[in-house]
Structures are given as structure tokens and as C-alpha cells.
Design a protein that fits this description.
single chain; 248 residues; UDP N-Acetylglucosamine Acyltransferase, domain 1; 5-stranded parallel beta sheet
Length: 248
């Protein structure tokens, strides 16, 4: 069973990392793979009530790979920790199958009380670099967490979360593993800066059209020889010209 899990872990890395050229390269050069294998050993010791040995193996894995996984954490099959440095997975964290974590990801706790205090990740979840998931929250299957997001609440399956604190930006059905998206960056993810600029451009265009309309009305009234202060008095659509004190 252990060897089958190792084979599955290697195949998952080959499928999700185009830089991986062979199984031997994965075995020798991928710290995420090393961390997962050592975690399975540490967890076996932990479940055998050899708690100190389990913690020591986990500490050794952290020293060798820069990835810290508590031996009591539950890790599913085909977990891929890409690059991996500074990844932290807490004691009561649960990670489903086919999950991808990038460097700097933290599955942390916010309570000192015993019991469930770390996140639960469903299957197929992708967590981008530097993201922090804090507390006993649940991330649904197929969800994507953008880089540097801070997630403090449950995440609906199949959506993308970004920001601090994280909020949903894409609502979509859960996608198949063939639609794997590196760093959790959905190709349909809206650009918040571009969206804000589009809104500003629309507002400016509307203001220009309104100003042109008001100038046209004012020119027509002046052509009729009506004094500005009398003809325009009480007309809300020309309050701007009156406030500016425009005169011929």
C-alpha cells in the first residue's frame, strides 16, 4: 500500500509539473515528494503511539525540505507540494486527494483549545503561493485559493477566492483534474484593476456626454437672448453651470 501511494505521488507530480522529466528526477530532486513520504512514516509512528519518534521524523523532514507537516495531520493521496519552502500543515488539518499546495502555504490554527482547529481541504483543491488558511474552516472540492489570500471562512466547492480577507471572485462548477490551473489562477479570473479602470472610463464618458448636453442647452438659451440667471433658475440640469458661475 505504501509503495502504491508513492507511485501515485510520483505520477501526480509528473502530471502537474511540466518541469518534471522522469520518475527518478522526482524521487531525487523534489522536496515536496520527500516531505510527503517522510510524513507517512511519521504518521505511522504517531498512530503506533510512538509520538516522540513521529515528531522527530516530522522535524527531520522540516529540516531537510523546509516543509512542516504535523504527524497527526491527515493527508490524502496524490498530494503535490510544489517548491514547498515554508509550507506548514497543522496537527488537525485534513487534506483531501489530488490537492496542490505551493510555497508559503499555511494551514494554521487560531485557537489554543484542544480539538479541531485547523482547515479541512476537499479533493482537487489548489492553494496558491503564500496563501494562509486559518481556523477549522472547510474548503470545498475543486476550490482555488489565490496567491497570498487569507481565508478565514468556509469556501464553497468550485470557486476561486482572492484577497485579504479572501472573497469569492469566480463561481463555477467543480472542474476535472484535466483542468488543473497552476497557482490557483483561473484563466477566467477577472482583473480587479482592469475592472476598476473600466468603471472609471465609463463614468468619465458619461460625464463628458452630460457636460456636452448641458453646454448645448446653455448655448441655445444664450442664442435666444435669455439671461443666464433668469432662464436657468430652478433647472436642476443646469445647476453645474450656475455653481461654476459661467458667463458668456
Amino acid at each position: 500500500m505504501i509503495f502504491k501511494n508513492i507511485r501515485d505521488d510520483i505520477d501526480a507530480i509528473l502530471a502537474r509539473d511540466p518541469a518534471a522529466r522522469s520518475r527518478l528526477e522526482v524521487v531525487l530532486c523534489y522536496p515536496g515528494f520527500h516531505a510527503v513520504v517522510l510524513h507517512r512514516m511519521a504518521q505511522a509512528a504517531w498512530k503506533a503511539n510512538l509520538r516522540l519518534l513521529g515528531r522527530f521524523v516530522a522535524h527531520l523532514a522540516r529540516w531537510l525540505t523546509g516543509i512542516e507537516i504535523h504527524p497527526a495531520a491527515t493527508i490524502g493521496r496524490r498530494l503535490f507540494i510544489d517548491h514547498g519552502m515554508a509550507v506548514v500543515i497543522g496537527e488537525t488539518a485534513e487534506v483531501g486527494d489530488d490537492v496542490t499546495l505551493y510555497q508559503g502555504v499555511v494551514l494554521g490554527g487560531t485557537s489554543l483549545a484542544k480539538g479541531k482547529r485547523h482547515p479541512t481541504l476537499g479533493s482537487g483543491v489548489i492553494v496558491g503561493a503564500g496563501a494562509k488558511l486559518l481556523g477549522p474552516l472547510t474548503v470545498g472540492d475543486g476550490a482555488r485559493i489565490g496567491s497570498n489570500a487569507v481565508v478565514l471562512k468556509d469556501v464553497t466547492p468550485g470557486i476561486t477566492m482572492v484577497g485579504v480577507p479572501a472573497h469569492p471572485v469566480v463561481r463555477a462548477p467543480v472542474k476535472a483534474r484535466a483542468d488543473f490551473c497552476a497557482y490557483g489562477q483561473d484563466p477566467d479570473l477577472p482583473d480587479p484593476v482592469a475592472r476598476a479602470l473600466d468603471g472609471l472610463c465609463s463614468d468619465v464618458a458619461a460625464m463628458r456626454a452630460r457636460i456636452a448636453e448641458l453646454e448645448s442647452q446653455l448655448a441655445a438659451l444664450r442664442a435666444q437672448g435669455e439671461p443666464d440667471g433668469v432662464a436657468l433658475l430652478g433647472r436642476p440640469d443646469t445647476a453645474l453651470e450656475l455653481a461654476k458661475g459661467d458667463r458668456p
